[in-house]
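Hi R.,

As promised, here are both runs. First protein below:
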Amino acid sequence: MLRARIFTAVIVLCLFLAALLYLPAIFWTILLLALTVTGSWEWSRLAKFSVTHSIVYLLLTTMLAGELLFVLSQAVVTNPYTTSFLSFYVASLIFWTLIVPYLLKSRYPIRNPLLLALAGWLVLLPTSFALYQLRAIDPLLLLGFMAAIWISDTSAYFAGRAFGKRKLAPNISPGKTWEGVAGALVAVSIYALVWAYLAGETAHIKFLMPLLLILAIMGIIGDLFESLMKRHAGLKDSGNILPGHGGILDRIDALTSTLPIAVLPLLFLQSEL
């Protein structure tokens, strides 16, 4: 199992880096649309949609995401910092900072199919848009934000295994501990310092450090929310498309709650210049 996880992770990482750095914009759009559609199919499983409702949801997501990605692709040609999709990022911010914490605290399952469909779009669509716009701004910037989340996840896992005693959310994800959270924040802080030093932007550390720490915290919230949805659905994984890792949502859960938020300060700072 461990060998399969490592092998899959290495292959996926290599393919992602190749796509991030070398794919033309049109193929990057197609890739993001494919990931969004696959994620919507997995979300329909978590939401316990019927087969008919799942197909309808899949088709609606394909049309909605495809059209909006096309609009975004046209907008970033003129200005990578376009605020045309600001409302989607703000909606994501509200969802992850207000609604999801309430759901995690109450462990209340969303039962209304329309609300479940909307929640799925709030999880998937802003993430897809953020992946496109951040790449248009700077592929290495996108990679830097994603690396912060990967470092946070990895550090939380090892710190939790080594020192974990106090459970973070035992009824949602028993493996997560407060010690793991502390380890993640320490690791991300070090990463922020290294990033600022290597980029020669030490003056920006007052901006970079809090942003990456916020992203680390939001990544944990995204992870917990997907765990809650799987628990409500009675599933171990969101899918089985990635051997040893589960589904697409299992791999991007922390990114869905972070990348749309990461775009916001960039857009606001650029608008003030």
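And here is the second one, sequence first, then its structure tokens:
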Amino acid sequence: MKWAITLLTLLTLPLLFNLVPLEVMRLKTFDALVTTPSPTGHFTILNIDEQFLDEQGGYPLPRDTLAKIHKDIMDAGALGVGWVMLFPHPDRLGGDDAFALELSKSPSVIAMPEISNGLYPSTVGTVIKGPIVSLPKAQGFLENIDVLKQSAGQGAISAPVDVDNLVRRIPLLQQTNNGWVASFGTEVLKILGGGQTYQIVTNQNGIEQVRVRGIPSIPTDSLGRKWISWVDTPQTTLSEMNVESTFVFVGFTAKGISPQLATPVGLLEPHKIQAALSESMLVDSPQIPDYRLFVELLLLCFSGLLTALAITYLGITKGVVSFLAMFAGMGYFEYYFVTQNVLIDFTWSMTCMTLIATQQFYINFRTQFKLRQQIKKQFEHYLDPRQVKRLQDNPK
């Protein structure tokens, strides 16, 4: 057992230090097991494709044209429009006033990216319920021109990646030097709900929930991030305009204009990612709990010791059966927790169970082999070989 305990102690180190290969394995497991919920029916993605750009004479589109698109979307019965585009410079053709006028007539949101410029938008009112928290602060934002940001809400389109460079978790709010900035998807829900502020529920670890008027509280991890459920939100084009009774996320799908970001479901444009974020805030999407490390360490120690005891003291047949039963049970509980939207990783414990079982099988085999050799050496000159064989098979 001392070798099993030694190995088990070493196997806790990757968990404690959260080594990159282990984190990648954990995230890939979650990707495989997490189910995709159905669309909420509140959102539509409108793609500006290459065909439309060809008809308009190419990119960029004049803002008079964007104003007309906005009006057409609202005339088709939409609830509001989110332009996942950047407007940091005035339109050289003078269409900013027309676009701003259309934005002001309906619930509208425009995008701003996070950049390292040390500049921040005006703080939107936030209410902190719980202890004051200090999170990694945003480095700055590239805002839109004044006439547009005064006519629509602004939402951050930050999309940080995990260790494998895939987008899975997006912060609902980002802390700045003087307050908080909402993500694009969060700003959309605030505007649709008619709210003016956000409420942030905190605990000793960080953020616990974000509350927006008109919808249930949104659980987050301690950094205020939401795990994205990659909902298949309905998509349409300007020629189809199937947008009635939904909030519309507008973006370019024409090649070479909008960057495509890597996600577990493939490459997606920013407006599709922000639509998925808004969908995720309205469904029971999964979350990695703050107590994950404690539970995973407890699982590792318990399953590892139980495996070592079973292999050591139950013999080969019963030991193998017990190990397989425990292994299958761990796999079942992994699946069960994920279906309950609790992302706790069992794969490292299952890997360690296999390593410990292999080690104990080898130690048992080596011990038995040495005992057989010792018996043969002691009795081969005094007993018939058949009697020596009987002693080797049953040393007792």
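A quick note on the second one: The radius of gyration is 29 Å. Let me know what you think.

Best,
J.
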